[in-house]
Amino acid sequence: MEIRIDAMRPDDWPAVRTIYEAGIATGNATFQTEAPAWDEWDAGHLTSCRLVARDEMDAVLGWAALRPVSARPVYAGVTEVSVYVAAHARGRGVGRRLLQALVAASEADGRWTLQAGIFPENAASVALHAACGFRIVGRRERIGRLHGVWRDVLLLERRSRVV
After folding, report:
1. Is residue 62 within 8 Å of residue 19, measured between CB atoms?
2. How far is 124 from 52, CA to CA, in rounded Å?
3. Cα distance between residue 148 and residue 130, in whole Å
4. How far is it, in rounded angstroms, from Cα 136 to Cα 134?
5. How far apart are CA 143 and CA 17, in angstroms?
6. What number of other Cβ atoms are within 10 A of residue 106's Cβ?
7. CB of 128 within 8 A of CB of 95?
């Protein structure tokens, strides 16, 4: 399968949203229970670090984006990572290509720390992040409830050696 990484465009949103909703439906990707409207999602993510993976037919296979962790200037270089891959494209290197490209884009944008909060049960996501230079820095126990169940989250981070 040919995979091309491109900047996300607003007209990619329907495909991005569908992939996001499928991730939400697994119960192991996020505390979110529904995908937001484009305007809300757009406002919450950096415009400089939004990527999609496309196949040879230009279909969106996955997406990755960064959001600021704080509005305080001292944390301007610290962002939270989101990476989602369509179910039919998993296990084919799409997530790794997206995350590697997102790391490069983040460094070009002056970001020095990427962090990810991942449910411990999502072993594939933990492994993907580890393969891309993230390390587990802690476990946040019972940090939030999803469908009435308290969930732990592993906190992973990647520190840039460039920025």
Report:
1. yes
2. 19
3. 29
4. 7
5. 25
6. 25
7. yes
Q: Residue 150: give the domain boundaries.
A: 4-159
Domain count, the chain: 1
Neighbours of 75 (CB within 10 A): 12
Provide the CA 103 distance to its chain's centre, in angstroms.
Answer: 11
The residues, ordered by sequence, that sit 6+ positions from 108 with a Cβ below 8 Å of its Cβ are none
User: Nearest-CA neighbor of 160 among 116, 112, 114?
Assistant: 112
pLDDT digits (tens, 9 = 90+) for 95-146: 999 999 999 999 999 999 999 999 999 999 999 999 999 999 999 999 999 9
pLDDT at residue 1, rounded to an integer: 78
Predicted local confidence at residue 95, as pLDDT:
98
CATH number of the domain bearing residue 101: 3.40.630.30
Q: What is the distance between the alpha carbons of residues 31 and 160, in angstroms, rounded to a whole number? A: 27
Bridge-based pairing of strands 135-146 and 149-159 is antiparallel
Any idea what the Cα angle at residue 142 is, between residues 68 and 121, rounded to 5°?
A: 80
